[in-house]
Design goal:
With about 180 residues, the chain is mainly alpha-helical. Helices cover about 80% and strands about 0% of the residues.
């Protein structure tokens, strides 16, 4: 037989081994459970984030679609305004061309009148030079050699004073 003290030592060592084994296994199982729980939590969080991202994208797509739908009338108006602006620019260019032509014609007519009269008043010269300035500012340079020669010719004409005539008023005779 085994002496008592040896049986007690074997029992204590066995008990100690069993307790340590149980503690080790329970610790391992606890850590494993924590790991699995963390892994499941991370997976759940990733799924939630994916769901949130999908919801956010869906909301963005919906808002974008509504915005685009609402913008269509504005885009149509902008296109119409752009077309109207282009028409206005064309009309303005055509108007400028016509104005330049009329200014040139008026300057030529004034010069012809002054040439026929043999003189030009200071007022007529000043008016002609104002027409010439407007003509140039509107881009009227394609007849430059003629118009500049007209200016020189007008400037060389003698200046005549404007003659004022006196009007007399006749009163009816009273009886």
């Amino acid at each position: 037989m085994i002496p008592n003290w040896l049986a007690i030592v074997i029992a204590v060592v066995g008990l100690l081994g069993t307790v340590l084994g149980v503690l080790g296994i329970s610790g391992y199982i606890g850590e494993r459970a924590k790991y699995k729980a963390n892994k499941a939590n991370r997976k759940e969080e990733a799924e939630e984030e994916a769901v949130e991202a999908a919801k956010k994208k869906e909301l963005q797509d919906t808002v974008r679609g509504v915005f685009q739908e609402e913008m269509k009338p504005i885009e149509i108006k902008l296109n119409n305004i752009t077309a109207e602006i282009a028409d206005i620019k064309k009309d303005l260019a055509d108007n400028t061309i016509g104005t330049v032509t009329m200014l040139r014609d008026r300057m030529k007519a004034i010069l012809d009148e002054c040439r026929d009269a043999g003189y030009a008043s200071t007022g007529t010269k000043a008016n002609w030079h104002e027409l010439y300035g407007t003509y140039k500012s509107l881009g009227g340079n394609h007849f430059k050699e003629y118009v500049d020669a007209w200016r020189e010719e007008l400037d060389e004409l003698p200046v005549a004073a404007i003659k004022k005539t006196r009007k007399t008023t006749k009163t009816p005779e009273t009886k």
